[in-house]
Amino acid sequence: MSTGENDDGRLRLLPVRPRPKPGESTDSYVRQLARANHLKPSYLRGYLVGPPDYGRGKRPRADRLAAVAGRRQDALERALSDLVRQKRTEPAKPKRSFTKTADKPALFAAIREDAQAERLPVSHLARRHRVSHATVRQALKSPTPPPRKKRPPIVGPAKERVGPTIDAILDEYATTHAGQLPTVREVWETLLDDHDATVSYGTVHRYMSSHPRKNPDTLIGHSEGTTGNPLAAAQQTFHAAMFKHYRALLTAIRHEPARHGLDGSFATTTAFVLGLDAGSSWNMLAGFQEWLVVRRGTGHDLTWPILVRHLTPGGWVHPLTRQSGTAAVTALHRFLGEFFDAREQSDGLGRIFRDYQSWLTTQAWYQWTLSPIFLGS
């Protein structure tokens, strides 16, 4: 089902038009209309905002909502509590004035000078300089202004309500998109469509802006300094949340392989791990083969599944028996856990590759390949 305009420019009526409840919010009614007509709430809301940008968290237009819902605009304005912005009935309170920290020494000096010259009381000095009585007392006590108190960040009820949900959305998105992060708009639309949340676009933007892991309106975290450096890029995109997710999944597989369609053999477990690595754009196991080579002390020309079998207690067994296969699976999970621990350390991946490079330089065959004769000089 889609919305649109008729040939004469009038908005089309929605096939199903439920009645709004008295006192209902506009977002709630838009969700009700969207669900009844098999539309995404974010799509219908953007359509009701209208051109030129169709959304971005702006208020739906009353005339467009009335046109698609087949109801009188004045009736909707009475029924929906926030469809029309209410005008302020009381006069606005005068805004409180603040003195910049850099201007305070001069202010304190002026207060002290007036107090000494005219011997004015605190109340008169406060009115003359338009400051509080406490500020006057501070100035009379010392010519040096005290440092400004640090106030805790203000967290509104909307942030407290949707913050954990936004975190879950970001973690799920990063898990399925190789560490990338969604845009603010994608998060806001997901809240509307999948969580029936009534939250402004601005609230989502402010929450993501102040979050240490998020960078608004980008698909990935800060990328400065990673151009041309695939190692730094891999470290950056495959962050701790991804490791946490994969470690939990691998733990579940180790305990109950059948629930994940595996028979518990080394072959199926290896295939599953390779699939996870492919799904992470080959970031999950970056450095794993090198880490195993350094651990074994040889085998730079072997793949990591073969290296794991060589490092399994009891050594290389071919073909695998039931007992040796179980031992290889156990060893694989143990090595993955230790490798993830190493990667999660500060500069962990860089250290793994530096250790591997150091190991290479100790190998006679490596020195021979770098000799002038081999290089043809």
Question: Would you give an account of this structure?
Answer:
- This protein is mainly alpha-helical.
- The chain folds into four domains: 1-84, no CATH class; 103-141, no CATH class; 161-210; 230-369, no CATH class.
- It contains 19 helices and no strands.
- The radius of gyration is 32 Å and the shape is flat.
- The model is unreliable at 215-238 and 373-377 (pLDDT under 50).
Mean pLDDT: 78
- Order of SSEs: HHHHHHHHHHHHHHHHHHH
What is the structural class? mainly alpha
Helix content: 55-70%
Let me know the number of strands. 0
Figure out the total of helices.
19
**Biggest β-sheet: count, sense, barrel?**
none
Poorly predicted parts: 215-238, 373-377
Radius of gyration: 32 Å
In percent, how much strand structure appears in the residues? under 5%
Q: What's the number of structural domains?
A: 4
Shape: flat
Straight-line distance between termini: 71 Å
Report a brief summary of the structure:
The chain has helices at residues 26-36, 41-49, 62-69, 73-79, 104-118, 122-129, 133-141, 157-176, 184-195, 201-210, 230-237, 240-255, 266-279, 288-296, 304-311, 322-343, 348-361, 364-369, 372-375. The protein is an all-alpha fold and 377 residues long.
Looking at this protein, list some descriptive labels.
377 residues; mainly alpha; flat; disordered C terminus
